[in-house]
Structure formats: C-alpha cells, structure tokens
Amino acid sequence: MLRDDDTLFTALIARDPSYEGFAYVGVRTTGIFCRLTCPARKPKRHNVVFFSCKDAAQDAGFRPCLRCKPLDIRRPTSGALETLRDRIKAEPDRRWSAEDVKALGYDPSTVRRAFQREYGITFAQYARSQRLGLAVNTLQQGGSVMDAQLDAGYESGSGFRDAISKLIGDAPIRTPVRQILTAQWLDTPIGAMLTVVDDAGVHLLEFAERKALPTEIERLRKRVGPICFGQHAMLDTLARQVEQYFAGRSITFDVPVVQKGTGFEATVWDALRRIPAGATRSYGEIARFIDRPDAARAVARANGANQVAIIVPCHRVIGADGSLTGYGGKIWRKQWLLEHERRLAATFSKG
C-alpha cells in the first residue's frame, strides 16, 4: 500500500532509500518520473504525483528520468564505478594508476570516493584485492609462486609475499596446503554486499556498510581460515540466487550455509530460517519457539551474531511492539527487505 503523499514528499526531499522500488514520483511540469532518491533538483510539492510502481507512472504518461533511471533493476551508481569495475573484471592482473584513471576521463579523487561509498574501500584497494585473488587462485591450482607473483603484477617477490600474507594470513609457499575461503562483492539494488564462501557453502553475506563487518571477517579468519578475493563455483550459485531474489523472481535460497557459532546460536539461526517470507517474529516469539521462553535477550544476541544476511533472515525479527529494532545493515534496508518480501509473498501466493 502506498504511503500518504505528505510522507512520500518528505521522503523525496530526504532522498530516503527505504522506498527504493516501492514508490516513484512524477513531475507534472516535465512529464518525467523518478526514484525518490534521484539527485536532480527537487520539484515543488504541488507539481508532483506519486505512484506505487513504474508501470503506473508510465501508464499515466510520464517518461523515465535519464539521471536516476527508474526502469533499471539496480540502483544507479557512479559511471566511473561501473566502468572501472568492468575494466578490473576484464583485466584483473592490471596494476592501475591515477594516470590510467585520468586517461579514461575520470578524476581519481572522485573515483576514490565512489568506491568508498559503495564498498567501503578505495579503488586502489578494490583493484589490488582482485589482483591478489587471481594470484592465490594460481597458487591453489598448482602454479608456482613466481607465476602467481607475475599474475599479481609484482616485480618484488618480498612485496608479493607481504601482500598475500596480509590478505590471507599465510606465506605463499604454504598456501597450496591450506583451504582458503573465497570472497567477492555482490551488487544489489540496496547496496554492495561482501560474501565469503568455500566448497561447503556460504560463511558470510553482509552489506558493505555494516559496522561489525571487519570484526566478522577477523572472526571468520580465526574460526575457519584465511580469506582471499577470487572466483568460485559457490559464488556463482550465490550471485545467481541473490540476483533472482532482488529481481522478484524467487523468494527462497537453497545455497548451503556453513557459518560457525555456538549450539544456541545455531538453534536461533535455524529458527530464523523458519520464519516465512513476508512475516515477522519478535525475539520473545522465537525464544518460545525454541523452548527457551526466558531467553529473549540471548535470542537477540544470537540474532545480531548472524553473519549471513537475507538467507538467514535476521531482518524478519522485530520488537515486541512491532517496531523495527536494530539492524546492522541499517534500518532503512530492514524496512526495504520486509516490504520487498511482503510483496513477493503476496505475488507467489496468488500464483
């Protein structure tokens, strides 16, 4: 159900991302319709009309904005970010310099900020992580340290060893005998997510802005093993299922989850996965469901310790009074996910 116009206009002025995909604004003076997060200058209150979907806006005769691109599934990002990310994917072994960025027509400082906003790291760090991931893949497939060093673009053997050690916590010469977790970025309509997998399944899936992410990565290193950016079949499966979820084509995940925790945490995480999409539960309700009616606070802690977002749906837990309680990925994303799933559940129930 579409919110009242006053609420939506306030969201438009604030560029509130929680309405992404659920509300659009048409500007009568231009005949254009936009996302509420559009960076264009905001119109006057009496010149706008709101729609619950993009089809309704088009049926009313409005054309899609060329700046915020409301017809695209993914939210618009910096053109520099998209171009450079594609170039890194095409040339993962290339060592990028500020001059290379300038040659493509982009300002290095602008590029740096774009990558920091989306991934929490600079362009140079993003490129280096992908380059080193390629090198570790070479080592895991039986290649020599020298081959991996050249793949990573390092002339200095010691410099390469230091970089690998910081990334995966081990020297390259010992890498082939250890199981290495593979990390990669996934792009979603509500922000980039970091995922870590291995042959057994998904160990971590978190939004880049989650404050606890560095702590979770360090905990994962200690509990399971070293982590490296790279390619993995499990990543391909996960990326496909995440894309289908956000595109509204699927509401379930069957990729295996292997995050490690205490017995109690595992019980709570299993209970979270039993909450139907489109529904919510309070901490107290979950505590009673697992036959620990006095453990609502412990349930809350276990809920917060979950590091596989969306698949283990900790966002479906709300306060006893119905309020949206704390969510590491930010409250607006929790609201977005709940609304997205409510609509998906309604759609699939009709089918």
Automatic annotation (TrEMBL):
Gene3D superfamilies: DNA Methylphosphotriester Repair Domain, Homeodomain-like, Methylated DNA-protein cysteine methyltransferase domain, Winged helix-like DNA-binding domain superfamily/Winged helix DNA-binding domain. Pfam families: Ada_Zn_binding, DNA_binding_1, HTH_18. Its EC number is 2.1.1.63. Binds 1 zinc ion per subunit. One of its GO terms (biological process) is methylation. Its cofactor is Zn(2+). One of its GO terms (molecular function) is zinc ion binding. The active site is at residues 34, 314. InterPro entries: Ada-like_dom_sf (IPR035451), Ada_DNA_repair_Zn-bd (IPR004026), Bifunct_regulatory_prot_Ada (IPR016221), HTH_AraC (IPR018060), MethylDNA_cys_MeTrfase_AS (IPR001497), MethylDNA_cys_MeTrfase_DNA-bd (IPR014048), MethylDNA_cys_MeTrfase_DNAb (IPR036217), MGMT_N_sf (IPR036631). Residues 102-178 form the HTH araC/xylS-type domain. Belongs to the MGMT family. This is methylated-DNA--[protein]-cysteine S-methyltransferase.
